[in-house]
Amino acid sequence: MFSQKLHPGDDFPQLVALTGDDQPLELADPSRETPWRLIVVYRGRHCPLCTKYLNQVETYRERLLELGVDIIAVSGDSKEQLAEHSSRLEVNFPLGYGLNIAQMQHLGLYVSHPRSEQETDHPFAEPGLFVVNQDGNLHVVDISNNPFVRPELEALVNGIAWIKNPDNHYPIRGTFR
């Protein structure tokens, strides 16, 4: 079966995960102060590369906020797995859990089975990164089939700054159908 990918420029789907205190976390719902949103989908607590990447994302949080971009991260982990993982994370952006397989597929993410019960107890999404603009459209997308390939954060943040600079008139790329 082929997976469908989200198309740049389309409305980002209205998907909801849960926060650690069981509040709904709408993936594409940025705050009024930050009209854009960076959504980081990570594999889960079992992935040390995800832990490292999320902690690196935190180091860019202030720069992104200055650009009007807020951050959330979400995985298919359970509430208990998120709680355990949170103890190893040094992030100040919302974390969500409970992304289900249908949601992962709707986002066009690659989904993997665990290698063993020691890794995790459920299929999980491979990394994905989405930037949703003020109109709710998918502006930037990056998906991977493994944890070793993710956007370099300095380049990503500089790219968002370039895109958001009105003098550059930079359109959403990759919209040819």
From TrEMBL:
SUPFAM superfamilies: Thioredoxin-like (SSF52833). One of its GO terms (molecular function) is peroxidase activity. Keywords: Oxidoreductase, Peroxidase. This is Thioredoxin peroxidase. The keyword Thylakoid does not apply. InterPro entries: AhpC/TSA, Thioredoxin-like_sf, Thioredoxin_domain. PROSITE patterns: THIOREDOXIN_2. Residues 6-162 form the Thioredoxin domain. It comes from Paraferrimonas haliotis. The keyword Oxidoreductase applies.
